[in-house]
Specification:
Helix content: 25-40%
CATH topology of one domain: Rossmann fold
Number of helices: 16
CATH class of one domain: Alpha Beta
CATH architecture of one domain: 3-Layer(aba) Sandwich
Strand order of the largest sheet: 2-1-11-10-12-13-14-15-16
Strand content: 15-25%
Low-confidence stretches: 1-21, 31-35
Number of strands: 26
Shape: globular
Radius of gyration: 24 Å
Mean pLDDT: 91
Bound molecules: adenosine monophosphate
Length: 588
């Protein structure tokens, strides 16, 4: 596959995303065609200025040189500015070139969220190479597969993560150099490709670099999906898609990131480019705070208080943990924190309420690796702001409306037809837009996901409803939705309700085979420590009974100390299903 492959522009009329019962949408003209179908196109003559990360880099360096970039360390905080950091980025680009990296080459990073990792976020794409962030929580087999599939030429690694590379040294055939950062080069690097010290490379590189002129469609970055079934699949982001996605992060009704913000990406930089925050932060010049490897709830609270963070982003588990810390301790001043952006898994209504009670606002977003990742954000429309608090919470616990640039439709699982916006009919979410991938890397065969693309739409595999206001509610992944006696049960909704029980910390609901009903729900629950020995199945059933149809009630409730999680902190239902196989046997 050529790295410079252009996505074919869409042709043909746009679907009516609102469904037949809704107001019609204007069919999009084929991009190259003129209005009125005339063959000699009358085209506007605006400049074809490339939307690249080089523009973002230049802008931050010129306009926000004194805005701070901070990384938490074991001894406190390491402080820098955009001016200093981006001067180092220029040196770094030269250093990477000196290692033989050429345009289009993939350069891996295996690192915590830090300022040095941030330097790579700009040096690699702006010199024309491809930033390939590697997930440090993957098992060796998957990490090795990903490095080989991407054919990374150089890998930058945090000193304490070098053992992970040693664990996959047989998969490093394409890797010509390893560069160690955020600590000294460890002694035991035998068997690895030549290993260098980051700071030494930087010191030896010239202060200036001749940046190439880039096409906005050249690849800037790539990430692999978490691959719970089959091998992980690569998604390649272009400069244009990264630029437009970062732009979206700065929209007021999206994340609204701006210069006055102090942003704190707790979502790992290897998880869909920390949801676009690092590039968006430079775009607007917001102060950036990186947690290093200190991402536990107590450190999180401390850093928010110390650095007066205004915007933090991470998965729900993190905020559930923060709430527990705030229940125990009242000495953290988190009054600067205006919003928490949360996604990756459903945000339970109880979490929205719990944080609200502490004066903290959580904003839910939905998306995925293939979508860069942002697809929807849950902000209350003006017409909903006068609703009673409880109804507002109901909307905030939905995944939100599609952001500008993302077209979204729901296709019924039963009929294959587009579902109406009635808040009830559910189906698979399909999307299209400028930051949604048009194919997977090496993706021209079935195993690599060719069937995920249909008529110019990407089939997300997520099941949802959409209401008349355009708010989606995620019901499940297609493979997790439970079908009992011909009726659908949403495991995600049931989990949210169970987590509303004050005795419960976390809950997952799994569909297990049943001889009569085909599947029945089983709830796996982590109780809060103080209820560990007293909570019962009846507590859960009594809590659910007034809220759900009888057939939704779980047949089994199992209490555990911890739930299996994926490498990016989501419930790992595949593992849980395996674990339950020996424990749960339904009889007719
Ligand atoms: P990843 O590609 O690892 O970011 O995973 C993307 C998947 O996470 C989506 O396809 C959803 O299944 C799930 N997900 C992301 N955000 C949400 C959300 N707000 N609510 C429910 N599920 C979510």
């Amino acid at each position: 596959m050529s790295w410079f492959r252009r996505n074919k522009p869409e042709s043909g009329p746009a679907m009516n995303v609102a469904g037949s019962a809704q107001a019609p949408t204007v069919p999009a003209p084929a991009p190259a065609a003129a209005a009125n179908g005339a063959s000699s196109a009358f085209l506007a003559t605006m400049m074809d200025y490339p939307l690249t990360l080089q523009h973002v880099y230049n802008r931050a360096r010129r306009l926000f040189p004194n805005r701070e970039i901070v990384t938490a360390t074991a001894d406190g905080y390491e402080r820098s500015t955009y001016g200093e950091t981006f001067a180092r980025v220029e040196r770094l680009a030269g250093a990477i070139q000196a290692l033989g990296v050429q345009r289009g080459d993939r350069v891996g990073t295996l690192a915590w969220n830090s300022t040095r990792h941030y330097e790579l976020y700009f040096a690699i794409p702006c010199m024309g190479a491809v930033l390939h962030t590697l997930n440090l929580r993957l098992p060796a087999s998957q990490l090795g597969f990903i490095i080989q599939d991407a054919a990374d030429s150089v890998i930058f690694v945090d000193a304490d993560l070098v053992p992970l590379l040693r664990g996959v040294k047989d998969s490093l055939g394409s890797v010509r150099h390893i560069v160690v950062m955020n600590g000294p080069v460890p002694d035991d690097v035998e068997g690895l490709p030549p290993v260098h010290d980051y700071e030494a490379l930087l010191a030896a590189a010239p202060a200036t670099f001749a940046w190439p002129e880039l096409d906005e469609r050249e690849p800037a970055a790539m990430c692999y999906t978490s691959g719970t079934t089959g091998n992980p699949k690569g998604v390649v982001y272009s400069h244009r898609s990264s630029f437009l996605h970062a732009f979206s992060v700065t929209q007021v009704d999206t994340v609204g990131l701006c210069e006055r913000d102090t942003s704190f990406p707790l979502v790992p930089m290897f998880h869909v480019n920390a949801w676009g925050l690092p590039h968006a932060a430079a775009m607007v010049g917001s102060k950036l705070v990186f947690p290093g490897k200190f991402m536990d709830p107590t450190h999180t609270a401390q850093t928010i208080a110390d650095e007066k963070v205004t915007l933090a982003a991470g998965v729900p588990t993190l905020w559930i943990g923060l709430l527990q810390v705030l229940d125990r301790r009242s000495d953290f001043d988190l009054s600067s924190l205006e919003r928490i952006v949360c996604g990756g898994s459903a945000v339970p209504a109880s979490l929205v309420r719990g944080l609200d009670a502490k004066g903290l606002t959580i904003i839910q977003a939905w998306g995925m690796t293939e979508m860069s990742p942002i697809g929807t954000v849950s902000r209350l429309k003006s017409s909903l702001q006068s609703l009673p608090f409880d109804d507002q919470v109901t909307y905030r616990a939905k995944q939100g409306i599609p952001v500008t640039g993302v077209d979204l439709r729901i296709v019924s699982l039963d009929t294959g037809e587009e579902a109406p916006w009635d808040g009830e009919t559910f189906g698979e979410i399909q999307v299209r837009g400028p930051w949604i991938t048009g194919s997977y890397y090496h993706g021209d065969n079935e195993e690599m996901g060719a069937s995920k693309f249909a008529d110019g739409w990407f089939r997300t595999g997520d099941v949802a409803t959409i209401d008349a206001d355009g708010y989606i509610t995620i019901v499940d992944r297609t493979k997790d939705v439970i079908k009992s006696g011909g009726e659908w049960i949403s495991s995600v909704q049931e989990e949210g309700l169970i987590m509303g029980n004050p005795m419960v910390l976390e809950a997952a609901v799994i569909g297990m085979p049943h001889p009569k009903w085909s599947e029945r729900p089983v709830a796996v629950i982590v109780p809060k420590p103080e209820y560990k020995d007293t909570i019962t199945k009846e507590d859960i059933i009594r809590h659910l009974e007034p809220q759900v149809a009888k057939f939704w009630l779980p047949d089994e409730v199992i209490f555990v100390d911890a739930l299996a999680k994926t490498s990016v902190g989501k419930f790992d239902k595949k593992v849980m299903r395996e674990q339950l196989k020996d424990q749960v046997h339904f009889e007719e």
